[in-house]
Structures are given as structure tokens and as C-alpha cells.
Design brief:
The protein is mostly helical. It has two domains: about 25-155 and about 165-175, Tetracycline Repressor, domain 2, CATH 1.10.357; about 180-313, Four Helix Bundle (Hemerythrin (Met), subunit A) (Up-down Bundle). Helices cover about 75% and strands about 0% of the residues. α5 (about 105-125) runs antiparallel to α6 (about 130-150) and α7 (about 155-165) packs across α9 (about 180-205). The longest helix has 30 residues, at about 280-310. The protein is flat. The N and C termini lie far apart (about 55 Å). Converts heme B (protoheme IX) to heme O by substitution of the vinyl group on carbon 2 of heme B porphyrin ring with a hydroxyethyl farnesyl side group. Pathway: Porphyrin-containing compound metabolism; heme O biosynthesis; heme O from protoheme: step 1/1. It is a multi-pass membrane protein.
Length: about 325
């Protein structure tokens, strides 16, 4: 059973934010696509393509990454379209295009729907229908399952909704190989387990924002101590999961050593956060930054390891 929400009435969160006439510029539409999130999606999708057994040509690979990036941008735009009201209540998001009045909600909705449709059709026609269908499901999961259904209803929104962020390397793999196997599912599990510590570390330092906006993030609902405990649990589970590729023979020692070192660093940072004072902000900030470096370094190690294995006699 989920813990009760302290002082948050989700059924009465105001959605009556005035929308001014759009004065959108190109950079505002780019902001709707959440470029920081998109960069992570692009990189993990590229890794999925690079290590898949299909070995598609460079042009097709770039085309697939572009389609996945556009799909991620579509999901981001639909997320901002729906979340305009809570974005206006949080200091971290109040300057986004819709709450600031630079982009009208209707424009963000149309922009997201058009981008998503074009990305799915292009990937389906240009490479294979399976990859296009999986990209469509990813966009749907983020925009509908996470944003509309889970985000305002459960403190485990990030846990379940993290599946959307874990799918891009699988989409990339399917674009290259044409089918799903055990290897891309391991990549999915890595990002799926990485997501809660990553976002909960961020939310620990933005509890006031989330509480004011009526979002039941775990720190708001269960408190800092429970959040730190769960961060440590997920981080500990992440390490053996990241080593699965090595244990099963899908990766060599280069990746295995990198995964072990990076996993140990994450566990150490999570343990220090668990032991820290509730008023101390730096341990959560350090874990958040480390989590970004962790995922980037781990997936880079996958590419390096795959290249070395191809070159070895």
C-alpha cells in the first residue's frame, strides 16, 4: 500500500493558468523538446545501435538516431503541454515556454503530435516497422502513462514511468537488428534501475517545489529518510544488473571493470547520502551529478568494449 500524501490534495490542483498569445521563437520550440533529456536519449539510442548485431550502414544509423531524438522531443513537448500548470508553480520549471507565455498550449500539443507522428512514420518506413512501433509505444508511455496517469497519483511515478526513459537503447537495437533479445533488455534494466536514484536525488533538493505543485514525489510523501533508503536499495540493485552483460558473455573485461568501478562509486555516494543530515543538500546534489556521469560512462564503456572485441583476433 502506498504511503499517504502529506498535505497534498491532488484532486484540486489548479489548472487555470492564463495563456497569453504566443510569441514563440525557434529556441522556444527547441526548449519544448527538452534538449537535456533528449541528449541522454540520443546517446543511449546510439549505443543500442552501435552494439547491436545488425551493423546497419552509417547513414541509416544517423537516420535512426535522428528519428528517436525527434520522438523524444515529441514526448517532451506533450509532457509540457499537460504539465503547464504545475510547471508554473515550481521555480525549477516556471521559465519553461508555456508557463512563461512564450508558447500557447495548443501549439505545444500540435507540435508534439506532429513530431511524434513524423518520427514514428519515418523510422517505420526508413528502417523497420518494429522499431517504429516501439518508438510509438515509448512516446505514448511517457506522455500518457507517466505524465497524465502516474505523475500526479503515486510517489512511485518515477519507478514505473522510468520505463519510457529506458526504452531508447532498445529502440536503437531493434532499428539495427530488427528484433529484441536479452542484450537490449539488460540495457533497459540498467536505465530502469538507474532512474529512481537519479530523480529522487534531484527531488530531495526540490521538495518545496514538488509539494507546492501537488506532485507526490517520494520525499514529499514518505520523507527524506525513506527516500534515501530506497535510493540506496536501487543503487545496490543497479550494480549486479550492470554486470549481467559481462557475466553472460555479451561484453568483455573492459566493460566489466568499468561497470564494477562505476557501480561501486554510485553505492558509496548513495551510502553517504543515507548517512547525511536531512538538512545537508550537497550529498544529494553529488549523487545526482554522479548518476549522470555514471550512465554516460557506462554506456561509453559498452561502445569501447564492443569496438575492442571486434578488433581482437
Amino acid at each position: 500500500m502506498l504511503p499517504p500524501i502529506r498535505g497534498v490534495d491532488l484532486m484540486h490542483v489548479s489548472r487555470s493558468i492564463p495563456v497569453r498569445r504566443s510569441t514563440a521563437k525557434i529556441e522556444d520550440y527547441l526548449a519544448l523538446m527538452k534538449p537535456r533529456v533528449m541528449s541522454l536519449v540520443v546517446f543511449t539510442a546510439f549505443v543500442g545501435i552501435a552494439i547491436a548485431p545488425g551493423h546497419i550502414d552509417p547513414f541509416s544509423g544517423v537516420f535512426a538516431v535522428f528519428c528517436i531524438a525527434v520522438g523524444a522531443g515529441a514526448a517532451g513537448s506533450l509532457n509540457m503541454w499537460y504539465d503547464f500548470d504545475i510547471d508554473a508553480m515550481m521555480a525549477r520549471t516556471v521559465a519553461r515556454p508555456i508557463p512563461s507565455g512564450r508558447v500557447a498550449r495548443s501549439e505545444a500539443l500540435i507540435f508534439g503530435l506532429v513530431l511524434g507522428t513524423l518520427a514514428v512514420l519515418a523510422l517505420s518506413i526508413g528502417l523497420n516497422v518494429a522499431a517504429g512501433a516501439l518508438l510509438a509505444f515509448t512516446i505514448f508511455f511517457y506522455a500518457v502513462i507517466y505524465t497524465i496517469w502516474l505523475k500526479r497519483r503515486t510517489p512511485y511515478n518515477i519507478v514505473i514511468g522510468g520505463a519510457a526513459g529506458a526504452l531508447p537503447p532498445v529502440v536503437g537495437w531493434v532499428a539495427s537488428a530488427g528484433a529484441i533479445g536479452i542484450e537490449p533488455l539488460i540495457l533497459f534494466l540498467i536505465i530502469f534501475l538507474w532512474t529512481p536514484p537519479h530523480f529522487w536525488a534531484l527531488s530531495l533538493n526540490h521538495m518545496g517545489d514538488y509539494s507546492r505543485a501537488g506532485i507526490p514525489m517520494l520525499p514529499v510523501v514518505a520523507g527524506k529518510a525513506e527516500t534515501k533508503r530506497q535510493i540506496l536499495i536501487y543503487t545496490v540493485l543497479l550494480m549486479p544488473t550492470s554486470l549481467l552483460r559481462w557475466f553472460l558473455g555479451f561484453a568483455g573485461p573492459t566493460y566489466g571493470v568499468a561497470a564494477a568501478i562505476l557501480g561501486a562509486a554510485m553505492i558509496l555516494a548513495a551510502f553517504k547520502l543515507r548517512q547525511s543530515d536531512d538538512e545537508e543538500r550537497r550529498p544529494a546534489r553529488r549523487l545526482f551529478v554522479l548518476s549522470v556521469l555514471y550512465l554516460g560512462s557506462l554506456f561509453a564503456a559498452l561502445v569501447v568494449d564492443a569496438a575492442l572485441r571486434v578488433q581482437s583476433p
